[in-house]
Amino acid sequence: MFLWGYLAYMAWGMENMDAAADWLLMPRMNGWDATDLFLVLVMWALMMAAMMLPSAAPLLMLVNRMYLERDGWKRAALKGAAFASGYLAVWSGFSVLATLAQWGLLEARLVSPAMESASTWLSSALLLAAGAYQLSGLKDVCLTRCRSPLSFLMTAGSDNAFLLGIRSGAYCTVCCALLMALLFVLGVMNLAWIAVLTVIVLLEKFLRRPRGFVHATGFALIAWGLWVLGRGIVAG
Fold this sequence. Notes:
Elements: H1 2-15, H2 17-20, H3 34-71, H4 73-107, H5 120-134, H6 137-147, H7 149-155, H8 161-181, H9 183-186, H10 191-206, H11 211-235
């Protein structure tokens, strides 16, 4: 709840920049310095945690139960925390890349100070890339690993809880990174689209037969990307 409350706080700030310009946690509209980069990194890291932890909950519970049965509750609590830390560490690494990408796109005027795409070409490229990836074999492999936590734990081959968390987080990051990149198109702090993408990730993880849904999402994103591209070409 805290994480989603933070997102709502930031989303309101982005929609009311005059009132929120002096807020402690709001980066400047442009001309970022180290402080602004840090604030945007915190924003991305907390946003990724809010979006991905719900879909990772079954894996985290399974890990805690496994360690509880084998090591007792004290060590299980420590190892469960280490696993979750490793999982989130990978998404924090993604957040670093997303922050640097946003900075570069902002400086290139491809993303607006309101944190959404200002370029038809960027929007269409991200939509087409995300749609094509939904149809790819790599997406299928990574999603299968993310959907089968017990199989992952049995074949991971390591008792290091932090390392297991990193490996699990890596599969989920490769699986979902391009969906997360769509925030540059939809609005990095657009709370409605953040919720939509979170639901898409949840459905991919928990639908009994997700392949049809994943492929339908891919085709829809490709169609959307082509529409954006065509509209940009017509507009000249």
